[in-house]
Amino acid sequence: MIVRRSLLIALAITATLSGAAHAADDQSSLQPVLNAGDNVLKFDWPAVSVGTGEYEEGPTGVTVFRFDRRVHAAVDVRGGGPGTVNTDYLRIGYEVPEVDSVVFSGGSWYGLESTTAVATALKDDDIRDGIWTNLALSVGAIIYDFGDRRLNEIYPDKRLAQAAARAARTGMFPLGARGAGRMAKTGHIFDCGAYSGQGGAFKQIGDLKIAAFTVVNAVGVVTDREGRVAACYRDKDWPQGELKTAELFGAFPASSKQGAWRPMAQKLDAKRNTTVSLVITNQKLDRARLERLATQVHSSMGRALQPFATELDGDVLYAVSTAELEGPVDESPTPNVDLDIIASELMWDAVLASIPPQQQIKQPDPNVTFTTAQLRSFAGDYVFSPNVSVRVTVEGNKLVAQASGARPAFAIRKENTVELLPASKTEFVVPGRYPTTLSFTEKGKLVLNPGHWQQVGSRKK
Amino acid sequence: MIVRRSLLIALAITATLSGAAHAADDQSSLQPVLNAGDNVLKFDWPAVSVGTGEYEEGPTGVTVFRFDRRVHAAVDVRGGGPGTVNTDYLRIGYEVPEVDSVVFSGGSWYGLESTTAVATALKDDDIRDGIWTNLALSVGAIIYDFGDRRLNEIYPDKRLAQAAARAARTGMFPLGARGAGRMAKTGHIFDCGAYSGQGGAFKQIGDLKIAAFTVVNAVGVVTDREGRVAACYRDKDWPQGELKTAELFGAFPASSKQGAWRPMAQKLDAKRNTTVSLVITNQKLDRARLERLATQVHSSMGRALQPFATELDGDVLYAVSTAELEGPVDESPTPNVDLDIIASELMWDAVLASIPPQQQIKQPDPNVTFTTAQLRSFAGDYVFSPNVSVRVTVEGNKLVAQASGARPAFAIRKENTVELLPASKTEFVVPGRYPTTLSFTEKGKLVLNPGHWQQVGSRKK
Amino acid sequence: MIVRRSLLIALAITATLSGAAHAADDQSSLQPVLNAGDNVLKFDWPAVSVGTGEYEEGPTGVTVFRFDRRVHAAVDVRGGGPGTVNTDYLRIGYEVPEVDSVVFSGGSWYGLESTTAVATALKDDDIRDGIWTNLALSVGAIIYDFGDRRLNEIYPDKRLAQAAARAARTGMFPLGARGAGRMAKTGHIFDCGAYSGQGGAFKQIGDLKIAAFTVVNAVGVVTDREGRVAACYRDKDWPQGELKTAELFGAFPASSKQGAWRPMAQKLDAKRNTTVSLVITNQKLDRARLERLATQVHSSMGRALQPFATELDGDVLYAVSTAELEGPVDESPTPNVDLDIIASELMWDAVLASIPPQQQIKQPDPNVTFTTAQLRSFAGDYVFSPNVSVRVTVEGNKLVAQASGARPAFAIRKENTVELLPASKTEFVVPGRYPTTLSFTEKGKLVLNPGHWQQVGSRKK
Amino acid sequence: MIVRRSLLIALAITATLSGAAHAADDQSSLQPVLNAGDNVLKFDWPAVSVGTGEYEEGPTGVTVFRFDRRVHAAVDVRGGGPGTVNTDYLRIGYEVPEVDSVVFSGGSWYGLESTTAVATALKDDDIRDGIWTNLALSVGAIIYDFGDRRLNEIYPDKRLAQAAARAARTGMFPLGARGAGRMAKTGHIFDCGAYSGQGGAFKQIGDLKIAAFTVVNAVGVVTDREGRVAACYRDKDWPQGELKTAELFGAFPASSKQGAWRPMAQKLDAKRNTTVSLVITNQKLDRARLERLATQVHSSMGRALQPFATELDGDVLYAVSTAELEGPVDESPTPNVDLDIIASELMWDAVLASIPPQQQIKQPDPNVTFTTAQLRSFAGDYVFSPNVSVRVTVEGNKLVAQASGARPAFAIRKENTVELLPASKTEFVVPGRYPTTLSFTEKGKLVLNPGHWQQVGSRKK
């Protein structure tokens, strides 16, 4: 089957050799949204700047970490589907600070454009150049935020990443569904489908500073220190009340059963994830110590994200030392491990801080009724992207919808129509495990799940 | 300082170039104890045999896993102080089953002799030979079980490992302080000093078999699924009742403060550890899948052992496939990850199964009294090993002890005498956080902490 | 000193946070030159397409390898300064073909934009999308072609790489200073300063196909099978006639003495290099075999490039299997190694095929004379890039030049003026080990070293 | 087929679970031969001691490198069949010198016992102990010297390695077929079957010292700086006179055609090899620099050994710094690479120094005749090891031989008898590409290829 597809691809390649880009893939009209978000981690560390950029239309985004000096960095790769830039150089491990920025991005492998973009911005801004000792070194990693979680393939591109890099500011890190975490989700292994985001935590002990940042997009569930699942759209058959991660594992694999918008055809995509993380300290650490920090903190994340480091994730962690502080400040007999332990606990805090308020599941309102004529005013073909369209029609006195493009639109499938139940004068819902609200606007738009993660389709003329 | 010691070492080397081995290091009179222990995990898997060997005089031991065919194996190294044999060959990753045995051993790097010993036994027993396609391939790893936890440097040697390999049997795995886990401990990062051991767990789902084995010797604490510390000698100032690992981290670094027998001079040794693990499945897995299994299971162990993969550990995990079963048996859309998840939960079970009943702390009995003459009958120099001796003397009407060799003996230090309080007609104790019971035998022996981990000294004539 | 520069950089960063890109860094007006070059390796392999793109103004370029199906790939990194994208994913090593393209580029780390650009082009062209199983996977590596070898910092960007990807064609590979090898050089360790390029070789044995491609930019010298240096601007004190690499090593480090345009201030840059290579076979190879192919071929390159894999190089080799051919076709007892050996010999051929005709050193012509007025017509400030300008003035009746920007221009230094000796009515030379010809055009341009690697400056008004 | 063999093995395992070692595998009566050999590299470096141990009966041996202080070490693994101990610890890369010894050994994976043996000797000799900061750290690697190159499976064991370690002396390194190189061979890829050994080279430049040592056992041919094959038993159809490595590759794969004693049944064994190497400098190098030294020198060995790093080799190189000398002494702009280059050239010298005088091929002497009775006095079953016996019989008036054990004995095969042609009153030969001389002694021994690599069989009573 793979072979057969290869042949088709071969034909496609031939066909497009002289072709131009698909118009719909042109991102030049998208507006970068920079440093958005009111829920912000504040921290006192002039050496560390953070800039976020988002394209609302995705939504998707990028988070750029810049430093006011070159820093030392190490990397630990544990997931089964990583996307990285320049990690081979880090592994050489010279005892010279050389890294200018760490870039996390949505958009899967396409989003790696963000990492090189920040290096180029530094060159264009005359901070770095082509002299060997003054080259810009940007490293990065991406999360998978495509698939059935959104209805388009917009990715954080060079323009967005450079804007975020230039907007970087010290002392503030937006929490929740911001930056690279704009379209992050967690818990797909149990079909939780929870919305996620980016988290951060900071601690200062005397002169020692440690910060932990993470874009939480794990196939596993976020778990707090009491063992509770932090966010999950539950299956209707599950117990309500407190939900423990250990319970989900105890019932595994039954607890991973298929949810409303994960039919088999889409199964693998729904379960593609990746968590990317960054731990920074101002303590000077040699290469082995920095790698130990990366290793221990990354291993510790298996507590906050369960499961972790799976084949379905592409987990990558960077450890950075700004080397502002010489030597350990701790009187402990094991100062290195102490630092690693404190950083690991901070990382757990950071993971917990990543969770945004979840999208509410709107219920149908039996008191709302429409005339057939009114229903017909909603009918139409709504285009979300080249591959996703929804056809809304009236059957009898019901409004129904069906996906009419190459891919489904959440609970609106290609195989059959689904009834849309009225929830208000402009809103309909498809009841189920996950939010599926359709809001029709006066301007001929269909907004799926209005709110922070909404998807907007336009009625075809 | 390092340089200065190097000079001394240089002199030492010169001095001993023509010298013979220290007589006290001769292990030829030690008696191998094979497959000891009543607390046994039983499992139905003819392909997997386990043999354990122990030297009571250490105590220390070795655990040998043998297979009835050559198996596929991968390795994941995460700790900061690993000791391994032949892992480079595993990393080449040929799709041919070649591994004959996995060997875990006490004795730190000296214990690696156990791994090569099993290969040689296979050759000597005419199962393998020197033909390239029939070479014996044994891989292994060790734990650090020296330092201030025992008073000698006996290690599992070739003779012990070969005896254990030849005694290997299917279906039974001794739990607790047995085999390579004979002198394992955990929780030193919080000065818990808990006795530990080796654990195992087995699960069969249809034809699919998975087993998890581990020698738990972590600097971290064993943590159960409720977040509780599974074993720890607590500091007297700590709350009694349920002890949560999260509480210890919350109070860190205060919770890692120095215990009764960990003065600064010994600090680093007390906190040297290592957990070595093995996960086996009968499902055939290609190289990438087998490495994913190793990665995910090893990452998951950060839940059961907190902290994990520190600089003070040398954590190594081997993943083995016997390839008896073709393809995944699971109908799941993500069968590989399902296997990894189930194996990870099993490994948590295995860690929990490793904990032996702890050594009781004996209390002094105020009703027991001695005459000075009686006390004098206990006095003497008791030799535990070339480096450890205890001088018992009478001061006034008290019995006191002081370490008189190069190293201390638990709470009996070199710096000063410590009073021994009567607990019975032949036993004395040094009260404190950890067990320190001295039992004098009629044959002129001094037994420290009589029981499973006892140390025996002989009165110098 | 590093710290001090960091502070300056910090200021610079602050200053530019809200700034826009330097106008001079805008590459949007550069014209991609695609598939240029008459010296072409022809090969019969429909599965493999090659596209090259060049910016003459650099010069610099990119070489894109595309496949008509997804292919298996492995990577071997040996140099001390690699620049790579997505190698971590390759190392996971799934037995599924997933790689769409391999991209080699000039422009050092900035040139990595080329690798992600090709993936995005595949998405934009609707060959790939965001579905996990249909993501575009592009891997790549870069060479260092900045420093004192050219007078600007133009790099192969997204636009150039996408144009090259779309222009890819089967059966043809341009040899010499083309594509990513447009500004490659070799032999800097001996100050040879030879111009280099990209090479390729192809062999078919029955149904078995093997191709070797390489962008040769080594700090070492290209060496043929007779041990001769293939290209080198020799020091005037060196013997003429046949030059053996072994002789250069025999005289090392004297043979690495400083050349005419490598004063100490520039020393490290002149000696930054990197050779990136690709070996492709149509034989299906599992992961271990593919990695063995990469390892053996890369190791073998130490014969053709001496020295190789140094700290000053960033050598990376990708091995690709199109898996068109099942199993080894060879009756040899060691078919895998046979393949590796044949591929290694091909790679040596490929290296030798990379060398372009060298830039001739023009001699002054004592018969050419100028009046002072004529000389004055050449005078002026010629701007090559924001950092490089040359001031030409008349001293007495001599024309002299001095670098007036931040960086020197080959033999025209910042420290002092150098006399320009007439070579023709419009050309002057600076005699020395390396070519330094200045050609003044009627349009107020100064062309340095007219020809394939020329640098063009414009007279400031 | 593999599965079927596994079943047999399973039965074998069961059968021997309670069995004892094969008497013939008992090596306790073998006599260690220490520091043998008159052809010695002398070098002035008190920090470095070398001890060799050999068992003539193999022959096989071990080479132990000891240091008068703990040293820094890095490792580079490039071959397809490595055997190593404790390399994972080296890769952690602490900036603390910890390595006590590097051990090279014959005996394939069984020979790794030599590495742990040296660590244990240091403990037994009271130089090291069980305290974490004073553990002995020994690293090592092995070569494959079994297969059809010798008629037994004797390997360098603990006793031999400890004796060699204790006999280590400074300033002398035996060259040729000594120590671990006692039974080394090269060139099997071209069926050269040349005898090889261990080589060394030393250079001092001012205070800087560099030494290169290698046990050359490559499947490739040793190649000198003129491109000539240094040692090879040529095929009779090959040209005589100077033999260039490039010629052999040019004629490949024809040049790898089967030789006289490599029928297909033995093919893989004959072509199993491995070269293990050590480069030492007294300059202090941090981890990245030490790894660069290892990488560059190991890559450079592809010139002296062609092919190199194949699947049939297990090439491993250790790089060691004694850190006696702070900082680079070189005024070069690229001191690190200079060091690596010089070390690489030294390693080539070391490889060339490894070749011993080859075993002469004795010719039959037509003037020597025997009576049938005389011939009968030679007849008998000669046992070389449990697996190899040769039956000598008289057929008509000819002496013939046939292998009667499980394996052949060089040109004396199992399939048929081969005529033994008289060469002297006690010697017979089998003409062919390789030496096959049979010498009958008065004491009922049959010596195959009398001389340095002779194999001795005893007539069965």
Automatic annotation (TrEMBL), chains A, B, C, D:
Q: Which UniProt keywords apply?
A: Signal
Q: What's a Pfam family this protein contains?
A: Peptidase_S58
InterPro entries per the record? Answer: ArgJ-like_dom_sf (IPR016117), Peptidase_S58_DmpA (IPR005321)
Is Nucleus tagged as a keyword?
A: no
Q: Point out the signal peptide segment.
A: 1-23
Tell me which family the UniProt entry assigns to this protein: Belongs to the peptidase S58 family.
What's the protein here called? P1 family peptidase
